[in-house]
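Weekly structure sync - notes
Attendees: PM, LS, DV (DV joined late)
Agenda: review two folding runs queued last week.

Item 1: First target. Sequence and structure tokens pasted below for the record.
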Amino acid sequence: MHVLGCSELHSLQGRLRRIIDDGPLRVKTSGGPTRQVLELRYEIRSEHLVSPPEQVAPSCRMTSLAKTAIVGVGTTEQGEIPQLTGDEIAVQAAVAALNDAGIDKSQVDGIVTCKPPGGAPRTGTDESMCQLLGINPDFSSTLEYGGCGFSLHFAASIIEAGIANTILLTFGTDGRSRRISMAGGGGAADFAAPYGFVHIAGLASMAMRSHMAKYGTTEEQLGWVSVAQREWAVNNPRAIFRDPMTIEDYLALPYQVAPLRRPDLTMISDGGVAIVLTRADRVQDLKGTPIYVLAMAQASGMAQDQNPDRLERPWLAKIAQKLYGTTGLRPRDINAAYLQDATSVWVLQQLEFYGFCGLGEGGAFVAEGHTRPGGYLPTNTGGGQLSESYMWNWLNLYEAVQQLRKACGPRQLPKADVALHAQTHDFWKGAGTILSAHNGS
């Protein structure tokens, strides 16, 4: 892999300036000046994310074979499901995922379950799920914080270690019907609560204020994150919010925690999602169209306020560097991005730290329309957690798999071969995954 030298970088920047001088930027185009500008941006902005040439062989670009693949996905309706418990909802999703994979529950030799936020005691445990499903897997475990990316990485690691061959991953919640509260303490939150920071919206608003002060980002630019995801949700029958929303509609709404408005925050929902993950060398024996896990990486900011910058989470860039270094891919090779969006602010941060635009350019990037339908980087194409449903990023993985399978109907992307799924646990840690419809080049 070749890393640009100073003279080459200056030459590339000169080409970029000449293309920009040819005319104004436009979106919703498959070629011409706009695409050239964005591809050159990728080359310039992502060089620092790629490992040095001695660490990544020139021929490694998508040539290493994946060790695991997703062969089944299942979901339930979203919204309010008061007649079912969170575990019963998870079972519905699990049955759908097993049917999608074309396997019987007896063929599952591992299960990873996820405790839902604010769940009832013992909800989402491997004990309760295995009893409801009637299975005796060789391996079972429960993650206390099982946000989708972390559960996926854990299950893939278990398979790669040879402990299990096929793992069922489950998530189910009745949080909306039970009217759970997402306000809470614990850890660093105990120190922040006396100052009014009892919900993630408060700290997210502070992170956005920091971004605005440093880079001149505007509220209107931030609003395009939510507007773009609503445009995707319009064609998603699962989405809770499907009514069209313009940027004018967004700006007319009152603040929840300035500068954040209601569309900048998720809606607690009932619902479930399940995934079947297996060894990549077994996919030919199964019905489900395989989607390969090409690369996984994690990083954290666990020291919290002891870090130089807690709010903007610069450690996210470490995840991107590992992913791109492992696969030889660059941001321009990603056809769609699925970014954890408990708040719209998280989307701006991840667009920047995963190299899709420069630091401070996230606001302009979304305002130019690049994450919208027809844009250069389709993002959260099911509507994301801001419009579809708050499922701890599990539905974003479901949507990524379906897009790579070319199974998304009216919102299907014209090109969907490689996708990024990015998970965060607020200011604590993150997990990134590159998925592909093809196993190697």
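Item 2: Second target, run right after the first with the same settings.
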Amino acid sequence: MVQPDQSVTPRILRHHAAADVDVERRHDERSASLNKPGRGGVGGGRRKVDLELRLTSSCQPRPTVRSFSVAPASFKDLIADPIGMTRFKVSDCEYNPPDEDSIHPAYVFHMNAIDLEKFVQLYLRNGNWNGTQIVPSHWIEQSLTAYSRLPDGNGLGYFWEAAMGGKLYGVDVGEAAFAFSGGPGHYMVGIPAQNKTVVHALRYNVPGKATLPTERFAQLLELISQL
């Protein structure tokens, strides 16, 4: 555990990430069973897209609502607009204070599959977009490096899941492949060995909406990887 007087950094927090992600997933499963959205993610369902932002917020001396209020606008100016996320809107973001599900505050980003695919492309291109370095390459490398291992066999970086032994979700996708997943049924994957991106997103606010379990997504990923 981090001591009260110890400086908190992503390098310290990442060692606790696997347990945190397991809690996030169990919350997603409970939310799905109640026909409720999770507190974050990819696509409409939102759960995990906000996790890296939430982790970073915990590293600030005193994160405040005001400091979070600039996050969506900064993302739009620094990332969304430069890489052509034409559907991203600051008004589609919302601040979530700490609650019973997480001690960390979060700014939830509602994003559709088209914009998410561009975000995966940005990481696939090592942070470079048409000759402009949008995200530092060293941050991309650190984010996608596996520092621990999840129960499903995927490695875990800065809340990105990393291929271990060339496999993601048990599917042979080659070295350096990476993914983000969030319940119920939202996934985005980058496959450098094949120069492919895969995004699967569901609308989060449809009561009774069918989900896509990891086992089913793995079957879809295997078919796509063979194309």
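Discussion on item 2: The chain has eight helices and twelve strands.
Action: LS to circulate a short write-up before next sync.
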